[in-house]
């Protein structure tokens, strides 16, 4: 086991590397108000974060990550652009796996704003790749923007598109929705005569409104089976960047709505190439991070130690424009960033 | 070395447990007055009875302070992370049957499945500005079930009793609770979802996986098993 003080030294060394790239240091409390975290991540955060109770401040959580407080700070200061780094402990409850750490040091690098999004994406990835180069890790990349573009391009109702977007992260529910939207809707089984007495906050009007919406839904023409197959094809595309790109272009001939997302991806590969990343051998997977990296909505990446498959990714990150908007409203800026785990890096034998 | 057996300290669960052991030749009972939480055992040597609150029995088993314990499957799975690494089911006892279900107001005629609940939860949040609340005391089980079924946009609120009343009292929009007959749900204008059954529970004899079986406890247990006809 690597000594904690060594890990701390390594964390500050890494943070200094990001400072040298122009990032300013961000600090925040270990105890964070639970409300904002719950609002953002939902009930699942309770299974992943330690909740405690402050007699005056109410429910608090031990910082599960730096992202939320950083975005809040950036928005509160009313700045357009910003580039930050941080180093500190994060805490994760482990209900199922006793071998995973409940507490570890994390070093992050995050860019807000940025004139050209793909250049900010490339800068973050290239910085991580350079720092991690001595460890010989395998990078994995993806882009959830492709699937989003495909959904936005579907010829269906706005309600159906919104439902698919909402469940982008939940593959089974997403798939069930696609299949259902491919069929003619059955007649509603519920009687329109409202049963029972009205109790609770959800009103009879809300019930009636949903029944009406379901009725409207029935008249939406079913999705074409070919389109559903194309989305399956899209989700299955993986390979080294140049091959993945040509497969994507082939798919786009029948699914032209994803063309702009493909051009963005190509521009990102070019930006990575310009920063010295070996794009020709870079792994790209359309579905990468779809279940584990929930709040990312564009570029996503991770770095893995293949000789230690028991370890979680040594680094991970991505673009989270929507999360930034969810926290900051209209002041939320496009954002991309990632985190490193200095403890894992040391145990894999880099050191400084 | 004696074998410690933990059983619920009151009510129907205690009496049914006593009856189950009694039918198999092991008489369990309260020593002294009915208000004293000390027990006696007849018909089995070196077995000591510990009367405990049913909710505490999983924890006592996990800690190895008792070797055997009778409690509901729901209690063991709710109270213990990775329950099957800490305790093992020996025998289901055929009483205390109950189902943990998700229930919604009966007048929600548009909601009969988890899928409906998921859609309504998203719409509810947009209208009311907070997530749809589900009142329960089974946090781990409900959260795990809804995660496995990919339902989002809800929040759990803690309710340690009278959970069926929380919707009417505006503390929650839906509940997840134990249903024995369904009458309590009906009386409170609630209805279980068609696919909202989280767990079927019954009173069960558990043994600990903690390393407390040396020094003769294992042999006493083997003897008790054959007396009870479990060997």
DSSP strand tally of chain B: 12
Give the overall pLDDT of chain A as a whole number.
90
Describe the main β-sheet of chain B briefly.
5 strands, mixed
Say what the CATH topology of the domain at 4-135 and 330-347 in chain A is.
Answer: BirA Bifunctional Protein, domain 2
- Largest sheet: number of strands, sense, barrel closure of chain A: 9 strands, mixed
Q: How many H/I helices of chain A?
A: 14
**Oligomerization state of this entry?**
heterodimer
Which topology of the largest domain in chain B does CATH recognise?
Answer: D-Maltodextrin-Binding Protein, domain 2
CATH-level-2 architecture of the domain at 4-135 and 330-347 in chain A = 2-Layer Sandwich
Order of helices and strands of chain B: EHEEEHEHHEEHEHEEHEEH
How would you explain this protein's 3D organization?
The complex is a heterodimer of chains A (352) and B (231). Helices cover 43% and strands 18% of the residues of chain A. With 352 residues, chain A is an alpha+beta fold. Among the domains of chain A are: 4-135 and 330-347, BirA Bifunctional Protein, domain 2; 157-224, no CATH class. In chain A, a hairpin with a 3-residue loop joins strand 3 (51-54) and strand 4 (58-62). The two termini of chain B are 21 Å apart. The interface between A and B is large, with 36 and 39 residues.
Defining traits:
heterodimer; A: 352 residues; alpha+beta; BirA Bifunctional Protein, domain 2; nine-stranded mixed beta sheet; globular; B: 231 residues; alpha/beta; D-Maltodextrin-Binding Protein, domain 2; 2 domains; five-stranded mixed beta sheet
């Amino acid at each position: 086991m690597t000594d904690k003080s060594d890990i701390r030294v390594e964390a500050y060394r890494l943070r200094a590397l990001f400072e040298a790239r122009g990032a300013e240091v961000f600090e925040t409390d270990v105890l964070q108000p639970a409300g904002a975290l719950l609002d953002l991540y939902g009930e699942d955060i309770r299974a992943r974060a330690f909740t405690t109770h402050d007699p005056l401040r109410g429910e608090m959580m031990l910082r599960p990550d730096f992202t939320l407080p950083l975005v809040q700070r950036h928005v509160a200061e009313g700045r357009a652009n910003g580039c930050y780094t941080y180093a500190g402990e994060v805490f994760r409850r482990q209900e199922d796996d006793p071998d995973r750490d409940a507490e570890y040091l994390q070093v992050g690098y995050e860019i807000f704003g940025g004139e050209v999004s793909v250049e900010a994406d490339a800068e973050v990835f290239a910085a991580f790749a350079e720092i991690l180069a001595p460890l010989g890790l395998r990078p994995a990349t993806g882009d959830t923007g492709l699937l989003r573009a495909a959904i936005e391009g579907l010829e269906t109702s706005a309600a159906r598109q919104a439902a698919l977007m909402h469940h982008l992260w939940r593959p089974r529910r997403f798939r069930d929705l696609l299949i259902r939207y491919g069929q003619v809707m059955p007649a509603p089984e519920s009687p329109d005569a409202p049963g029972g007495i009205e109790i609770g906050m959800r009103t009879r009007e809300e019930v009636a409104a949903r029944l009406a919406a379901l009725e409207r839904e029935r008249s939406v023409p079913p999705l074409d089976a070919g389109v559903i197959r194309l989305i399956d094809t899209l989700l299955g595309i993986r390979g080294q960047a140049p091959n993945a790109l040509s497969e994507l272009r082939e798919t786009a001939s029948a699914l032209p709505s994803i063309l702009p997302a493909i051009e963005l991806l190509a521009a990102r590969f070019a930006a990575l190439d310009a920063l010295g990343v070996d794009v020709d051998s870079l792994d790209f997977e359309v579905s990468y991070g779809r279940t584990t990296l929930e709040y990312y909505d564009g570029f996503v990446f991770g770095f893995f130690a293949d000789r230690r498959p028991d370890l979680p990714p040594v680094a991970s990150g991505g673009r989270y424009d929507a999360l930034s908007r969810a926290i900051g409203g209209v002041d939320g800026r496009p954002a991309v960033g990632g985190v490193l785990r200095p403890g894992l890096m040391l145990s894999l034998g880099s050191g400084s | 070395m004696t074998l410690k057996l933990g059983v619920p300290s009151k009510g129907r669960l205690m009496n049914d447990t006593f009856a189950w052991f009694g039918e198999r030749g092991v008489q369990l009972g309260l020593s002294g007055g009915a208000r004293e939480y000390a027990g006696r055992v007849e018909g089995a040597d070196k077995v000591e009875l510990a009367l405990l609150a049913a909710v505490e029995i999983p924890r006592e088993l996990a800690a190895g302070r008792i070797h055997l314990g009778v409690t509901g499957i729901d209690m063991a799975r709710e109270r213990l992370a990775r329950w099957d690494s800490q305790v093992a089911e020996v025998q289901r006892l055929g009483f205390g049957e109950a189902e943990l279900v998700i229930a919604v107001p009966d007048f929600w005629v548009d909601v009969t499945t988890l899928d409906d609940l998921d859609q309504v939860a998203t719409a509810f949040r947009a209208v009311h500005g907070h997530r749809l609340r589900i009142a329960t005391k089974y946090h781990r089980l409900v959260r795990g079930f809804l995660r496995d079924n990919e339902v989002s946009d809800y929040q759990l609120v803690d309710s340690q009793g009278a959970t069926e009343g929380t919707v009417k009292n505006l503390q929650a929009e839906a509940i997840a609770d134990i249903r024995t007959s369904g009458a309590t749900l009906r009386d409170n204008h609630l209805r279980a979802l068609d696919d909202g059954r989280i767990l079927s529970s019954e009173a069960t004899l558990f043994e600990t996986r903690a390393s407390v079986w040396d020094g003769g406890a294992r042999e006493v247990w083997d003897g008790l098993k054959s007396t009870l006809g479990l060997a």
